[in-house]
Write a structure and sequence with these properties.
The structure holds two protein chains of two kinds. Chain A is mainly α. Chain A has helices at about 1-10, 30-50, 60-80, 80-105, 135-165, 175-215, 220-250, 255-265, and strands at about 15-20, 25, 115-120, 120-125. The chains are: A mainly alpha, B mainly alpha.
């Protein structure tokens, strides 16, 4: 009985097809992600337009606070102002995009998942939070790891990049084994990055539905703690995705850590920190 | 053993799968509290790192919930 209930309450694992343009099927998750991207571009452009030294507009002020938080993460990870400034747009894009998707997944945005469309004889929600679709998170993870590889190749060159995985005496079997492990780990990062985001957000949404169906008439009050928990997890997961991609980037381009070791030479330790 | 209630299996899966993340979150919390006790002026950075680590560990429980609810 309970199993039947869960099966009925949860939404299907795959995003549903709404219509198709030629051979390309447009699903509801794709539709919502395009709408979100357009909305975010418009919002951030507007904030950038109204941004000034002493911001009078509240929107610009709030967006500047957000970007400042991302900036502190970037400068903490890369350790170098120039590199951090170069990679800030990627991190800000990832964070805001994932955050909007996650928050709509925990039921904060009205209309997402509740407005339905009748297509091809069956009813499906018109908008679906794209982070509850494995395709979206997988594509984001592939893009992120691909960009990491691209920047590493650009920074270190092909030889330096391969040296990053395989240490100097290659005839040593241990070095070869460690290098192969590292390459495999790079592929595994795509899987873990995508599955973590997808798993947490989708399981959260299903959990809300399950609690709602178990509570019956009192679903309106019983789901409140779960929704609050999901809002917390949404923010944490968006932050984790952004921070992990920043860490991968900083390790791959060999910035951050080496500079930190240079700065922490024993001779410089006696100088007072002016921060 | 021919007819096992699926609800029993699901409950067992949630219970057994929650052991690992629970231990992990407990360890994170214990070390975070210990670290704040050692140097309280670093509280903000320690707490943010601890939350991120809790987010990483919670993903394991999310996988369990995902498998349980979708099968």
């Amino acid at each position: 009985m309970v199993g039947l209930f869960f099966g009925l309450a949860s939404e299907p694992l795959a995003a549903e097809k709404l219509f198709s343009i030629g051979p390309l099927d447009i699903t509801n998750a794709m539709l919502f992600s395009v709408i979100t991207a357009a909305f975010l571009v418009a919002l951030l452009l507007m904030a950038a337009k109204y941004s000034q030294l002493h911001p009078k507009s509240k929107l610009a002020y709030i967006i500047e606070l957000l970007i400042d938080g991302i900036w502190s993460v970037a400068i903490g990870t890369f350790g170098d102002r120039k590199t951090a400034l170069k990679h800030l747009p990627l991190l800000a894009t990832l964070f805001t995009f994932i955050l909007v998707g996650n928050l709509s997944g925990s039921g904060l945005l009205p209309g997402v998942g509740t407005i339905t469309a009748h297509t091809g004889g069956h009813v499906s929600p018109l908008l679906r939070p794209f982070t509850t679709d494995l395709n979206a998170t997988l594509s984001m993870a592939i893009l992120t790891i691909g960009l990491v590889q691209f920047y590493a190749l650009k920074q270190l060159g092909l030889k330096g990049h391969i040296r990053h995985y395989f240490a100097k005496p290659l005839y040593n079997p241990m070095n070869l084994f460690i290098g192969l492990n590292e390459v495999f780990g790079e592929l595994l990062r795509i899987i873990t990055l995508s599955m973590r985001l997808f798993g947490v957000i989708y399981a959260g949404e299903v959990l809300i539905a399950a609690v709602g169906s178990l509570a019956g008439n009192f679903a309106w009050i019983a789901t409140v703690p779960t929704v609050l928990l999901e809002i917390f997890f949404s923010i944490i997961q968006a932050y984790v995705f952004m921070m992990l991609s920043a860490t991968y980037l900083s390790v791959a381009i060999g910035g951050g850590e080496h500079d930190k070791h240079k700065a922490e030479k024993p001779g410089k330790e006696l100088e007072p920190a002016k921060a | 053993m021919n007819h096992v209630d699926p609800a029993l299996i699901k409950g067992l899966a949630i219970g057994l799968g929650a052991i690992g993340p629970a231990i992990g979150v407990g360890l994170i919390g214990a070390s975070a509290v210990g670290a704040i006790g050692r140097n309280p002026e670093m509280q903000g950075r320690i707490l943010s790192t601890a939350f991120v680590m809790a987010g990483l560990v919670d993903a394991v429980l999310a996988f369990v919930l995902l498998i349980v609810f979708t099968t």
